[in-house]
């Protein structure tokens, strides 16, 4: 019965389940993530205005991998970055199983 058998990309036995990922060919739609999450100005000096069409978790990391900012239940707001050291930061926004990452420069 086809309804009870696992999909072809799933291997099962009594001890484990192994999923294999198949690749797809295509060009990612960057505009889809731009409507979900954006910020300006970039580069920034004093503050950054973040806009999101969904509520999610915003995290900002320096290039050493240290988290310098995090806020859950985040949608849209201004964040003071004047205390951040000058440099490049990685901004991550996680919402409803979607992850958007962007580079932010502080001057």
Break the fold down into its secondary structure elements and pairings.
Layout: E1 10-12, E2 17-19, H1 30-36, E3 37-40, E4 47-52, E5 56-62, E6 67-74, E7 77-80, E8 87-95, E9 98-106
Antiparallel strand pairs: 1-2, 3-4, 4-7, 5-6, 5-8, 8-9
Short description:
By secondary structure, the protein is mainly beta.
Task: Report what the structure shows.
This protein is mostly beta strands and 107 residues long. It contains 1 helix and 9 strands, in the order E-E-H-E-E-E-E-E-E-E. It has a 4-stranded antiparallel sheet, with no helix packed on it. The longest helix is centred in the N-terminal third of the chain and has 7 residues, at 30-36. It starts with 9 loop residues before the first strand and ends with a strand. Mean pLDDT is 80; it is low at 26-32.
Low-confidence regions:
26-32
* Main sheet makeup: 4 strands, antiparallel
Overall geometry: globular
State the end-to-end CA separation.
63 Å
| Strand tally | 9
Q: Secondary-structure element sequence?
A: EEHEEEEEEE
As a whole number of angstroms, the C-alpha radius of gyration is: 19 Å
Q: How would you state the average pLDDT, rounded?
A: 80
Oligomer: single chain
Number of distinct helices: 1
Please describe the structure with a list of short key phrases separated by commas or semicolons.
four-stranded antiparallel β-sheet; 9 strands; 50% strand; single chain; 107 residues; three-stranded antiparallel β-sheet; mainly beta
